[in-house]
Amino acid sequence: MSFQAPLLLLGLILVPLGLAAYAIAERRRRRAQDAFAAPGVAPSVIPRAPRWRRHAPPLLAGLALTALLVALARPQVSVAVPAEQATIVLTMDHSGSMQATDVAPSRIAATRAAGEAFLENVPRRVRVGGVVFDHRAEAVMSPTTDRAALRDALRAAMRPSGGTAIGDALATSLAMLRAQPSTEGERPPGAIVLLSDGESTRGRDPLAQADAARRMGVPVYTVTLGTDAGTLPSGERVPPDPTTLRAIAERSGGEAFTAEGAEGLRVVYERLASQVAVREEPREVTAAFAGGALVLIALGGALSLGWFRRLV
Questions:
Q1: Within this chain, do residues 271 and 287 fall inside the same structural domain, yes or no?
Q2: What's the pTM?
Q3: Minimal CA–CA distance to 201: which of 244, 261, 252, 257?
Q4: Which tens digit of pLDDT belongs to each residue from 184-231?
Q5: From residue 299, how far is each of 63, 69, 134, 290, 303 by CA, in Å?
Q6: Element (H, E) at 87
Q7: Count of structural domains, the chain
Q8: Would you call 195 helix, strand, or coil by DSSP?
Q9: Residue 215 and residue 141 share a domain
Q10: Cα–Cα distance between 295 and 127 in angstroms, integer?
């Protein structure tokens, strides 16, 4: 929680001062009561002492004062709202190792299916671009709200071959985000969803590109696909490399996921769709504190009237 006028919180000093004044007044009241009637005869003079009920209305009044003082400082909280002006770049690996069949029917088929599920879960007004990569990176479509066109472009481009150039893929994705038109001098929020199964073997340093993404304020969400038992039709083992992808996510300010199977990949993409398509927005909650204070005052007054036939 933050405050638009935090200096007004200094008024909260009145709360402990009020509690101290109430304690002093109670002490004086007890002294006066003891002077009026000796402790031995007090039960016959005052047969029904209010006990804790005496303190309930003042306590509620103190809570109400606290809430009102907090309301004066104009509190606000951060809430997640749909970032409908956001841009997401879906960056997918189609290197030769994606032919492995440890994920049925193959890694690349599972990736395509999960990518399409991701597109279905992202809010319709969020623009999504597509980048695919093997030993080189290719921008297959600029960010768009046309899900069908992007789906067709990804299907046509995803053919397993070559090495793995994760750094180049990130650089291409960042360039796509930089090219997006700004609104009132500010670039709309962006994110990259990177899916790969292997170690970067070509091109630029992916960790340097992750640092560049952080400087741009672009989190990279990585998904590692495959199992240690993954092999190509030739028999060559192609285990995934989650360490590099995790480092990319951490250095960029994103989050790393792993998905060993096709179903796991689908679930991960659905989670990503809900994460990268929202942004934190401050919301003022002054009315909530002020309304709560009024409720507490009304409750305290009602209890005082019911128990003691007076408001205070």
A1: no
A2: 0.62
A3: 244
A4: 667 778 889 898 887 788 899 999 999 999 999 898 988 888 888 888
A5: 11, 19, 68, 14, 6
A6: strand 87-93
A7: 2
A8: strand
A9: yes
A10: 45
